[in-house]
Amino acid sequence: MHFTIALFTLSAAFFVLAYLGKDKAWADGITSAAYWNLWAGAVLTILTVGAGVYAYNTVAHSETSHAAMTNHRNWALATAVLFWGLALWAVSEKRKRQRPSGGFLVVMLVSTGILAVTGWKGGELVYRYGTGVLPVAKMLGPSHHHHHGGAEADNEDDDGTLVGDDHDDHDDEGAAHGHDGDEDHDH
What we know:
Elements: H1 2-20, H2 27-58, H3 63-96, H4 102-127, H5 136-140, E1 147-148, E2 151-152
Antiparallel strand pairs: 1-2
């Protein structure tokens, strides 16, 4: 997914550089790189959309994160269609002239802005909602769960975020366990 964003962003940047340096000898090479990044991004977007659809249908999530996932999916599909259209338009532009028209460049820049919003929404799924990320307690395993009255407490809300106890009181009955760097601490 990040490769797609990088390729499209590089393509836009190269198109702008080529436009600004249109009278320079290097502009044709930069323009060629812009086209190839756009076309490579369009091909990789097929895989990106496939991975996104798979994740949308398989990743465990809460009702709150589901709304954010649906919003990101809708933006991502629209953005993919925009860039596929730009990739086809670029074939026509390349046949007519070496460098694309001003109209193409404007649509490319607007599409890159839309791509940035789509990427931000995807980042929100991970960093705000924790979608597709294992909660720390699950990664560490059962020896790190809190025990209260002999029964294991459920310290996660609906989206897998740990809630409740903010202190580090392990009920391990003095058993040693691996916290990096705290071998000498007593629990």
